[in-house]
Amino acid sequence: MSGRRRSTVELGHDAFLDIVANLVGILIILVVILGTQTHHITEMMRSETKPDESIQIDESTTEFASRGQLDQLGEMAMRAASAQRESLELEEKLRRYDAQIAQLNAARGQMLDLQGIAEAAWEEAQSELDQTKVRSAKLQREIREAESEVAALAGTKDRLANEEAPVVAVEHLPTPMAKTVFGDEIDLRLKSGRLSVVPVEILMKEIKQDVQRMTRKPGNTAATVGPVRDYVANYVIERTVGRVTQDGRTGIAMTARLGAVAFEPLTESSGQPIGEVLRNRSFLDVELAGRDPNATTITVWVYPDSFGELRQLKEHLYQRGFATAARPLMDGQAIIFSSTGTRSKAQ
User: Measured between alpha carbons, how far is 41 from 32 in angstroms, rounded to an integer?
Assistant: First the structure.
């Protein structure tokens, strides 16, 4: 459409320029003709006023031009002036025509610029229209997809409404009253889903033997025993000198007291995954073998990342008749026994 409109405008301008060019050509021809006539008239005037060389002029006598000759000369002068005036008018018209042609060319350039702007605006509008169509098609596709999903959900809803609700069995462990542990006790460490036995009794015996070998001097002494089954025990002995009364007699004596004991594994990966421990025959079966469930309590030192595994372990021990006591620990905290601590409470 824009190409057809541009061709029509250009043909109109070309026709107008052809007409102007024809007019200019005609004016030029007229100027040439008038110039030729003026030259011819001038030659005639010169030939008529030129004296005859064959006639001898008597200088002694003076003759004046007749009235007819004067009238003829005046007529020729008027004709020459008229021709010159017409020539000047034609030149003025030519200048005006040239100015008009320049104005028309400028107007034509402006019209072509406007035409270019209009075509650019048209193309931009066409592009926006195409983009609008693309967006509309995309929205229509999304609407169809959403309607399809809604229909599928409605079908699922109807199917579920007609189905019977499944029966879900919830397993739970009984929670008897907690009681303080005084009998046999096994300490387990559960971290990162790995279970290991903490050899508390064996390490405590080694601490007792190590203290007996120490030099007796007042103050606090720190020492380490182990490793036993990948565990060590770091402990502190507090010795003080004071007045002691015994059997009615008073004296100065040195007393020793075990301050605190920290049980730590040699590596954080100590133990076995809880799944392997519960699935296969493992060290836990060896520890529980020969022990009376009514007189033995399992203390589990558990870290926050293994609370889920703790429930599995408690279910396993409950099925075997053993009571468990959970002792939560913070990340990075060691298993610490202290003379001022509390005993485990089993359930």
Answer: 14
CA separation, residue 289 to residues 69, 176, 322, 344 (Å): 168, 24, 12, 22
Q: How far is residue 206's CA from residue 225's CA, in Å, rounded to a whole number?
A: 7
Q: In 3-state terms, what secondary structure has residue 114?
A: helix
Residue 302 · residue 326 · CB < 8 Å: yes
**pLDDT digits over 1-50, tens only?**
444 444 554 555 566 677 777 777 777 887 777 777 666 666 666 665 55
317 within 8 A of 324, measured Cβ to Cβ: yes
Q: Are 214 and 221 in contact (CB under 8 A)?
A: yes
Q: Is the peptide bond before 227 cis (omega within 30 degrees of 0)?
A: yes
Six-digit token pair at 200?
């508390």
CA-nearest of 203, 201, 196 to 301 is 196
Helices (H), 199-295: 200-213, 274-279, 283-288
Average pLDDT on 294-316 reads 88
Q: How many residues does the chain have?
A: 347
* Residue 236 neighbours by CB distance under 10 Å: 15
Task: Give rounded-to-5 percent helix, strand, coil for the chain.
Answer: 55, 25, 25
Sorted by sequence, the CB contacts under 8 Å of residue 30 that are 6+ apart come out as: 90
Query: For tokens 């309590």, what's the residue?
Result: 297
The span from the CA of 311 to the CA of 55, in Å, is 160
Q: How far apart are CA 39 and CA 200, in angstroms?
A: 145
What is d(CA 72, CA 158) in angstroms, rounded to the nearest whole number? 125
- For the chain, what are the domain ranges? 2-50+63-145, 179-346
